[in-house]
Design brief:
alpha/beta, elongated, ADP-dependent NAD(P)H-hydrate dehydratase activity, Carbohydrate_kinase_pred_CS
């Protein structure tokens, strides 16, 4: 499923009308009816419904939605919140159809009249503003949005809640607070941003007849379960432990042995054939009982980097510490140009001075920061990253030739050529120490078992988050869930998504 900006959505509409010959009024009818039937799961026959209709395409959709609901026998008040002169083009055509169907509408003259209707309503449908909104709301929208948000009613939005920007990068806004949003054709960037996503509530996407083969590729898409089932590698009946990758994990310390232990165990639970751990010798007694299947290797010349020959993938940084004296480990790993390298946690802090050298590596380099770690690497503020994660991730990955996994409620996975995938699996139970270490182990394992690193990273993020979701659905809560629980829950997830 593609993720689009406002401009890319406009381009899709243009292509549908010009290249495919679809009439704008037909697309609006398709959109309004598709949204109506999507919203019906939140509406009951006994509900009183207020539909708020603005200008532009969103308002035209509103007339179709109100007409369809009335035709189905629902109790609907249609409120046009802008003057008649503002209703033009395809929206005006659907307004005429609405009137010709024998349905009345109310024209907003004062917010007090609308307040009375909202006070009687059970459901409010926001079809006021669409993807073209920039900046803060103006009257009458700001007053209407405030009225709706303070009412104890079910708030439903069409495409995106009024006032929410479609694109990343805008921080100052006021918006309709939806419980559910029916998104038309493709989710917009703001459905995945920390400060805008909450306004959507739950959401899903409706298809309106735009032919996908004619559309330009935004190189930005949502990665879901169907993608995982399609790309997750099958286990060959005649394979052996060497067939599934020999991985090396460098990290851990006497005070932080658990991080590297969880990475190793998660990697083995995700199918890795062999895992070796290079850590401080004092940490081995704490790690070995937890992950008996792993072996331990000694570093060369008294350090923590062993002979790197013969490994199919290396993960580095978890629990390693940030002492600048350890930077020689980073330098040595970057010099190993032919083995895929994943860097996480403390490794990311040590890596900053070596970023220019990454693009010289021949094998893939994967960085897995959360926003704070990415701020350290990029020199940006956390606020800047959260406001525009798509563009900052893309710029960084392209500049340094790396795969970047920017972790969060919506994890953005960016390839060295700037293509992006988003994983929205997972829940607040993952907001605990150790979750990132487990993810690194899963990613390392899948990187070694999958020819396409891009698919491996996308699948690994999905499997990690989905395991947390399945555990919370069955026995755990978001409060008690531990990173180690996720490791043990992987078996269920693999059974669900493996072919």
């Amino acid at each position: 499923m593609d993720i689009v900006t406002a401009q890319e959505m406009y381009e899709r509409d243009r292509v549908a009308m010009e290249a495919a010959g679809l009439d704008g009024k037909m697309l609006m009818e398709n959109a309004g009816r598709a949204v109506t039937y999507d919203l019906l799961r939140h509406i009951r026959k006994e509900h009183t419904i207020v539909v708020l209709i603005g200008a532009g395409n969103n308002g035209g959709d509103g007339f179709v939605i109100a007409r369809t609901l009335l035709n189905l026998g629902y109790d609907v008040e249609a409120w046009q919140v802008v003057p008649d002169a503002k209703i033009t083009g395809d929206a005006e055509a659907h307004k005429r159809i609405f009137q010709a169907s024998g349905h009345p509408y109310r024209l907003l003259k004062s917010s007090e009249d609308l307040n009375t209707s909202l006070g009687r309503a059970d459901v409010c449908i926001d079809a006021m503003l669409g993807i073209g909104v920039k900046g803060r709301l103006k009257e009458p929208y700001v007053d209407i949005v405030r009225l709706c948000n303070e009412k104890s009613i079910v708030r439903l939005a069409v495409d995106l809640p009024s006032g929410v920007p479609a694109d990343e990068g805008q921080e100052d806004f006021e918006a309709f607070q939806a419980h559910y949003t029916s998104i038309i054709e493709a989710p917009k960037q703001s459905a995945f941003l920390q400060h805008t996503q909450p306004y959507y509530g739950e959401w899903s996407v409706v298809e309106i007849g735009i032919p996908p083969k004619q559309l330009p590729d935004p190189r930005r898409r949502l990665w879901d379960g169907a993608d995982v089932k399609r790309t997750l590698p099958e286990r060959d009946a005649h394979s052996h432990k060497g067939s599934h990758g020999k991985g090396l994990i460098i990290g851990g310390s006497p005070l932080m042995p658990g991080s590297v232990a969880m990475t190793a165990r998660a990697s083995l639970r995700s199918g890795a054939g062999l895992i070796a751990v290079s850590t401080d010798p004092e940490a081995i007694p704490a790690i070995s009982p937890y992950v008996q299947e792993a072996t331990f290797v000694e570093g060369r010349d008294g350090g923590q980097v062993p002979d790197l020959e013969g490994y199919d993938g290396i993960a580095f940084g978890m629990g390693f510490g940030r002492d600048s004296k350890k930077e020689n480990v980073v330098e040595r790993l970057i010099e190993e140009k032919e083995t895929p390298l994943l860097v996480d946690a403390d490794g990311l802090y040590l890596l900053k001075g070596f970023l220019p050298a990454l693009e010289k590596r021949e094998a893939p380099t994967v960085l897995t920061p959360h926003p704070g770690e990415f701020a350290h690497l990029s020199g940006l503020s956390i606020k800047e990253i959260l406001n525009s994660p798509f563009s900052h991730s893309k710029n960084f990955a392209e500049e340094h030739g790396v795969y970047l996994v920017l972790k969060g409620p919506s994890t953005i996975i960016t390839s060295p050529d700037g293509e992006q995938r988003v994983d929205i699996s997972g829940n607040a139970g993952l907001a605990k120490g150790g979750s990132g270490d487990v993810l690194s182990g899963i990613l390392l394992s899948l990187m070694m078992q999958t020819e396409d690193v891009w698919d491996a990273l996308s699948n690994g993020c999905f499997l990690h988050g989905t395991t947390a979701d399945l555990l919370v659905q069955d026995g755990h809560s978001k409060v008690d869930l531990l990173a180690s629980d996720v490791i043990e829950g992987l078996s269920r997830t693999f059974r669900t998504f493996s072919s």
